[in-house]
Structure formats: structure tokens, C-alpha cells
Design brief:
This protein has 9 helices and no strands. Helix 6 runs antiparallel to helix 9. 37% of the residues are buried. The two termini are 34 Å apart. With 192 residues, it is mainly alpha-helical.
Length: 192
């Protein structure tokens, strides 16, 4: 028991997101993909179906495989706790939910015949948000420009030239959300 007391649940939003996503991955495996299709992917469906609205948020919890999960969650575990400490758990949860909603709506509007799942939009939001973490009033950090050019520029190029199963649009939307959140929170907004 003394050993367990040494562990700290230091980043409740990020750690809970990682654990829930892991449970969703296992559930999806147990249901042979039905869980992702029903709840944890966003795609165009009837507006009368209440699950349509749940999917706008739930798609960020679904992953197609262990490697897909690990790639997203490892980056979240590296970048997320610092941001959760800086901006607060409530603010970070709001940012995750808004990014999920915006990326889900954009995907359904622009790619009606494809399903989207995974936390990569959230990861890109966190990456751009972290580049603004040390922003001073009325200054644009050089790290923001470099991160945007490297990460988002690469996604724009890939989106135009590469045909794969990766949603570059979601990465771009996530990055833009992160930049907007970072500028808003660092320009005098108070932490909640």
C-alpha cells in the first residue's frame, strides 16, 4: 500500500482520456469493430439519430489498432500534463471537447462517405497549444511559427499529394484550434 501512495494521478483529464481510449480499443476488439462503427467513429448519418451527436465527441476515443492508439496517446502523455497544469483541467477538457466537435463537423461536411476516428486532432491541438505556452502579451512566439510551418505545413502538403487513410484535415483543424485556444488563454484570459 505504501508503494501505491507514491503514485500521483497528476493529469486527470489526459490520464482519463488515455484510459477511456484504451477501454474503447478493447471494447472494439471484443465487438469485432462494432463499437467503433456504432459509437467511436464520426460519419454522415441521420440527424434524427441521437448517436450522431455522441459520435461528434466520441470519435476521438476510438482507434483502429494498438499502434494507432499508442501513436496518439504517447504524444498526449508527453505534452498534455504540462498543458493541463498550465491551463487547468477544466479548460483543457473544454479544448478537447471543442476540438472534437469542430473536427467532427468539418469531417462530416467535407467527407460524407468516410468515417473518422482517433485522437490525432487532439494531439495536434496540444502540439500547437504547447508552442504558445510561454507566449508573452502582444508577442507571437517563433516556436508557434516553426511548429505551424513544420506540422501544419506538412499536413497541407500531404493532404494535397498523398492518398492514404490519414485525415490531414483533422490534424489541421486540431492545430488551428490549439493556436486559437493558446492565443485566447494567453492574452489576458483567466484560468478557470
Amino acid at each position: 500500500m505504501r508503494l501505491l501512495r507514491r503514485f500521483q494521478y497528476n493529469s486527470p483529464v489526459i490520464l482519463t482520456f488515455a484510459l477511456v481510449s484504451l477501454l474503447v480499443l478493447w471494447l472494439n476488439d471484443l465487438t469485432n469493430g462494432s463499437a467503433n462503427a456504432l459509437l467511436f467513429s464520426v460519419y454522415r448519418s441521420s440527424w434524427k439519430n441521437p448517436l450522431t451527436y455522441l459520435r461528434f465527441f466520441g470519435h476521438v476515443l476510438g482507434h483502429s489498432s494498438w499502434s494507432h492508439y499508442a501513436g496518439n496517446i504517447l504524444m498526449m502523455l508527453v505534452v498534455g500534463p504540462m498543458l493541463e497544469e498550465k491551463y487547468g483541467s477544466f479548460n483543457l477538457l473544454e479544448m478537447i471537447l471543442l476540438t472534437a466537435l469542430v473536427s467532427g463537423i468539418m469531417h462530416v461536411a467535407l467527407f460524407p462517405n468516410a468515417a473518422l476516428l482517433g485522437a490525432s486532432g487532439i494531439v495536434y491541438m496540444l502540439i500547437l497549444l504547447s508552442s504558445l505556452a510561454s507566449m508573452r502579451q502582444n508577442c507571437i512566439p517563433l516556436t508557434l511559427i516553426l511548429v505551424a510551418a513544420i506540422y501544419l505545413g506538412g499536413e497541407v502538403v500531404d493532404g494535397l499529394t498523398v492518398s492514404d487513410n490519414i485525415s490531414q484535415l483533422t490534424h489541421i483543424v486540431g492545430g488551428v484550434c490549439g493556436a486559437i485556444f493558446g492565443m485566447a488563454l494567453n492574452n489576458g484570459s483567466k484560468r478557470r
